[in-house]
Design goal:
Layout lengths: L1 H20 L11 H7 L4 H14 L2 E4 L3 E4 L4 H25 L2 H20 L2 H19 L4 H15 L9 H23 L2 H23 L18
Antiparallel strand pairs: 1-2
Helix pairs in contact: 1-3, 4-6, 4-7, 4-8, 4-9, 5-6, 5-8, 6-7, 8-9
């Protein structure tokens, strides 16, 4: 009985994680806990355990007496995302090159093969999730308790706002996806060689590849200032 409940909890966790990251559930959307409980055959207690786990990882917000909702993405959070992304990606890949084990490198290579397969015949959502798994493994390689929460939240929002990148609408976008795959191969090589400097530079190159398209996708009409370039204002 416990194994069945554990399996249903894992299924719910996987369903919500994928739906949130691929925009099946939009930012700020309320979660129908009664419907989820019925669909996954879970009582309130195990359902809330899954939601607490997802909240701790940055996927959902838990509100007292108001239920759970998908984590928001405001213009402020997007500006912070563009500021922090290159720094966090760089730190993670440098630490990955320093700390990766042989088993993790093998896992990263397998994730890259899954990404290439998704590029050939997968949907935009499948490509986004395959790419996410590749980068999740680099975070595991980095093995840093201070970076891990920030990197996890970064990956969630990168997948959400980058969904357009994984549904190429023209030849240039398709070519960029191919370049992303090539850069993944270079990242693996740098990590396997323990080359921290090369891994850090590849993080910047990889970020820059998708930055312009993501920025165009999320930029509000009429906004003249690029995301990530304005200092946060504090109340007087």
């Amino acid at each position: 009985m416990k194994d069945a409940s554990k399996s249903r909890k894992a299924a719910l966790y996987g369903h919500l994680k994928t739906a949130i990251m691929t925009l099946g559930l939009r930012p700020g959307a309320d979660l129908d806990e009664s419907k989820l409980s019925e669909e996954f055959e879970l009582s309130r207690t195990p359902l809330r355990e899954v939601l607490r786990q997802l909240a701790g990882e940055g996927y959902v917000d838990l509100r007292e007496n108001r239920g759970a909702r998908v984590s928001e993405m405001s213009h402020m959070t997007l500006r912070d995302f563009f500021l922090a992304a290159p720094m966090i990606y760089g730190a993670v890949l440098q630490l990955a090159a320093k700390n990766a084990t042989e088993g993790q490198i093998a896992e990263l290579k397998a994730a890259q093969e899954d990404f290439k397969a998704a590029l050939r015949s997968g949907s935009g959502a499948e490509r986004a999730m395959a790419n996410n798994r590749f980068h999740e493994i680099t975070g595991e390689m980095a093995d840093n308790i201070y970076l891990a929460p920030s990197f996890q939240r970064l990956l969630i929002d990168h997948a959400r706002i980058g969904m357009t990148f994984y549904r190429p609408q023209d030849r240039q976008m398709a070519e960029n996806l191919g370049e992303a795959s090539t850069q993944h191969d270079a990242i693996i090589a740098a990590i396997e060689a323990g080359d921290e400097a090369a891994a850090g530079q590849l993080a910047i190159d990889h970020w820059n590849l998708s930055r312009d398209q993501i920025e165009l996708f999320v930029m509000p009409a009429g906004l003249d200032v690029p995301l990530g370039s304005v200092a946060r204002k504090t109340p007087a």
